[in-house]
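F.,

This is the one I mentioned.
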């Protein structure tokens, strides 16, 4: 997948609450870090992250600290984790996590919902759409109004989260946090785990 994005970029001029702006930003951050390793400029930006005193805030601080420490190219770590020779340590696709195989029914269901929601993958992208990073970017777009769904449509967000995010992404991030070759990506995984716990709890209260 390209380093920029797997799906459409957010619309300009959409008015969002501070909470939704933050939620969309975290989803997009996690998505893009899973789609491609950050280059030096992206790592410098990550090093400027500042979290609050919450568990998630402290995880963001740990990610910032790791980004500041890392002075090496992350292509090798990314390759070993997600690509490998034949396959990486992890296989970051929803179909694989849910069925043990690629390109199965979960991918077909995701494509159905993408069409309904007005989500299109970039023409240059060759990977299946159920890559965890792409799905997180889609969730960001549902929040910030990138697609045909109006920003702030909680029902659409809740349904997409329950169908395509919650069954896969928490398990994936838990596996990533334990992965032997993860260094930079270990705090990324911790942020993902904690953030999705917050999201799941919030949706349960609706």
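My design for it:
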């Amino acid at each position: 997948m390209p380093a920029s994005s797997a799906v459409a970029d957010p619309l300009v001029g959409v008015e969002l609450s501070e909470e939704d702006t933050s939620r969309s930003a975290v989803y997009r951050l996690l998505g893009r870090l899973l789609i491609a390793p950050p280059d030096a400029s992206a790592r410098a930006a990550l090093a400027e992250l500042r979290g609050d005193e919450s568990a998630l805030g402290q995880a963001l601080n740990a990610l910032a600290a790791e980004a500041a420490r890392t002075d090496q190219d992350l292509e090798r770590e990314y390759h070993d984790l997600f690509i490998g020779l034949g396959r990486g340590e992890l296989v970051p696709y929803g179909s694989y996590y849910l069925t043990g195989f690629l390109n199965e029914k979960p991918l077909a269901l995701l494509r159905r919902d993408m069409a309904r929601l007005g989500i299109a993958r970039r023409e240059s992208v060759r990977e299946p759409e159920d890559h965890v990073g792409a799905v997180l970017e889609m969730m960001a777009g549902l929040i910030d109004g990138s697609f045909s769904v109006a920003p702030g449509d909680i029902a659409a967000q809740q349904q997409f989260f329950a169908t395509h995010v919650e069954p896969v992404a928490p398990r994936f991030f838990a596996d990533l946090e334990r992965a032997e070759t993860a260094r930079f990506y270990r705090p990324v995984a911790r942020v993902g785990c904690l953030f999705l716990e917050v999201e799941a709890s919030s949706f349960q209260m609706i």
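Confidence is low (pLDDT under 50) at residues 8-13.

Talk soon.
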